[in-house]
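Appendix B. Worked example

We walk through a single record from start to finish. Start with the input: the chain for Transcription termination factor MTERF9, chloroplastic, Salix brachista, length 492.
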Amino acid sequence: MAVSSVYPLNPALFSHSHSLVLSQAYLKARSLRRIIRRGSRVVVLSTHSNAKILKPNRKSRYGDSLSTYDTDDDCLLNDEFAESVDFEVDGNKRVNSQRTSGAREGGQRLSNERTSKNTHERSIVEKSYHTKNRIKEAAFSDINEHGKQMTGKSAEERYPKLYEEIDLDKKCLPLLDYLSTFDLKEPHFIQIYERHMQSLQINVFSARERLDYLLSIGVKHRDIKRILLRQPQILEYTVESNLKSHIAFLMHLGIPNSRIGQIIAAAPSLFSYSVENSLKPTVRYLVEEVGINEKNICKVVQLSPQILVQRIDISWNTRYLFLSKELGASRDSVVKMVTKHPQLLHYSIDDGFLPRINFLRSIGLRDSDILKVLTSLTQVLSLSVEDNLKPKYMYLINELRNEVRSLTKYPMYLSLSLEQRIRPRHRFLVSLKKAPKGPFPLSLFVPTDESFCQQWAGTSVEKYLAFRQQLLLKEFAQKYERRGAQKYERRG
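Next comes the structure step. The output line below is what the pipeline stores for this chain.
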């Protein structure tokens, strides 16, 4: 829910009027100049985020002046699929602006009491923070993209394209220099600005605190870049009131510490969803309405973290109704599919489900056979028809001399690599004259290399791997020759 729809305009804010109005006007004018420079290219900024207004001349916990748009509060999102995170100011939930003067005075007294009570604790934390990071902080504003010290370079020299595109404010330089250590370049900063310009107004120390926290819980340094490009608002999410609560939610689901970082990298937008009003209801829906066993929720989230941030009721109902109508699938069958491969809730029916189902029909499988294949190996819905399913079918019929109905007993065949497993094992046994007579059994492709060599080939794994490598090189050379011949024909 957007902030403007919940909290009406407060006339009291205009007691700080001029600095706020000028700041907003400056940002709008700067955005307009950028659009004019680009001619016909119209840049649409983030439509689901709102800048939060702070008091003029406010200083951060480290004593630095903050921009009008710089804040330690959580970023607000107006997402059509979920309620946004709670809006807080200085640790308190935002209240309706139509309060009496007495209520405002009472709130101010409580704020002063809280500030006095926490002064000692805050000073200890700040002292520890500065001691631990003293060297890095001193170097932020003087680090280039290669991590080397810079001397006296202006904004125009350090970020010429960025300065030209958005009329760069020099106050942003320390933040840009810090973010550059994550391999972010000028085009990336422009992209971030276009998606959510307030993210580049964040105080560098606040940004670093939040990214350091993500790194501490297992997010890889190389993934920070991708996270910021997809969800730049994460720079505005506070550690205490947002990041930690969402991590606690994931841990409560049973997600191992070793997988937390991977889940965040895959679905960084989950921080923009309220734990109580969105994430927990989604999990309850998966258990109570879809029918996934509560013990399997941890597995489902690890396989598809995006399931937490999609409109799960529509995704489930649409795909369940389609599979039940198209293939006669029971509810239990579809629940098994979702549990094994929750990504199917993201697949398009027209471009994902139908082409693969129709292909399986075209090779002679009945709907009941297709349902068996999909229930056992739901990943089939993610495989390319032309590059994966069709070549394996052709090899099954023409080389292995097997029938299509064998796929219902060994659907795993469709998930195995044709180049790395199916063809090498078949050709290896043929070369040793140990291939079974008649249809080649698909069960030979299931065991590990060690079991295959021991039980069927009667030779060492090293000999088989050498044969496979030679076969791969030969096939690669043939493909290269075919491509060269095709290019020559097109030129002719």
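Two observations about the output. The beta strands are 49-50, 76-77, 88-89, 92-93. The mean pLDDT is 76.
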